[in-house]
Design a protein that fits this description.
Bound molecules: S-adenosylmethionine, iron/sulfur cluster
Order of helices and strands: EHEHEHEHHEHEHEEEEEEHHHH
CATH architecture: Alpha-Beta Barrel
Distance between the termini: 21 Å
Strand order of the largest sheet: 7-8-9-6-5-4-3-2-1-10-11-12
CATH topology: TIM Barrel
Structural class: alpha/beta
Number of domains: 1
Number of helices: 11
Strand content: 15-25%
CATH class: Alpha Beta
Length: 353
Amino acid sequence: MTRDQSRTTPATITDKFGRPMRDLRISVTDRCNFRCTYCMPAEIFGERYEFLPRPEILSFEEIERLARIFVGLGVNKLRITGGEPLVRAQLPALIERLSAIEGVEDIALTTNGFLLAKMAADLKASGLRRVTVSLDTLDEEIAKEMSGRPYGPEPTLEGIEAAVAAGFSPIKIDTVVQRGVNDHTLVETARYFKERGHIVRFIEYMDVGNRNGWKLDQVVTAKEIIEKISAEFPLEPVEPNYYGEVATRYRYADGSGEIGVIASVSMPFCGDCTRARLTTDGRFVTCLFASGGKDLKALLRGGASDEEIIAAVTGIWAARDDRYSELRESNTDWPENGDGPAGRKIEMYQIGG
Ligand code: SAM
Ligand code: SF4
Ligand code: SF4
């Protein structure tokens, strides 16, 4: 456990370490129009890869019912993710349902931005509050290499502009940093978004899933990232906005905005991890590095009452003792990108980061 927990507000349910359940990340599809090398490498997720068949995917009604139950147990923030959430048909209709749930204070979306230009206005109208767009570099060739598709950064940048025009502000940009791949382009990324008032969050490359061939030496630590950027644009640390914030914040000393670093590998933040996750096929997962998850779809479709589902979720959260990233830090002999403490890890595209 790392951070001060006194800032937490009373929660309906807490886990073994006293952590409340505040955020629910909902993966609405396991499909994606990109093949990022660190998430869904094209050589594994090729033409023949079998994604979930439609009947296995939660319907909007099922997602809404579960979201209501989670909100009743203390969740006040929802994040829509995937796979690529914008490839799920009629997504704004789902957001409209979710944003109408009493107790939802914030509803955000994480997207690669490729389809954002044509959807931004509808998403805003549906009640979506915030958008995070993933973009790893502005360099044309490196962007193609990292996204595993023949697209440079342009469609994503157009999506960001459309989101601004639709009224989303500020926009967060998530940039995964890999040593020897895009680490020499970070300052340019920072400069571009600094000039436009968006908040870049640089993310340490993580050992999620089992298929990206993660190696510790590919991780550029938050400390290095801050040093690189600060050498060009001096930075000062900023206090967290709220309990459980994953990014460590810094502001530009010239007052032109801020950036964040998500130091999941070098400075794990399990101590105040309030995030629950729902997979596309309805499994409740309590850690990014968990293995299976509780099959809530089976309960839903088996005719369980809300009370029965509440009992299942409460029991699992109460028994939660996940702190994978902290354990990884102290178990340097774990096989790189191997199984986690609970066995084979779930893949990132199934739970959406
Ligand atoms: N497709 C959407 C997108 O890319 O924004 C949403 C899902 S994606 C799995 C969510 C986030 O996880 C993205 O910002 C992505 O860059 C990040 N991510 C995926 N694999 C990662 C890894 N191995 N290490 C760190 N971040 C990763
Ligand atoms: Fe798709 Fe997002 Fe994974 Fe990239 S990080 S492959 S965009 S789900
Ligand atoms: Fe939360 Fe698990 Fe990540 Fe730790 S490793 S911050 S418990 S999701």
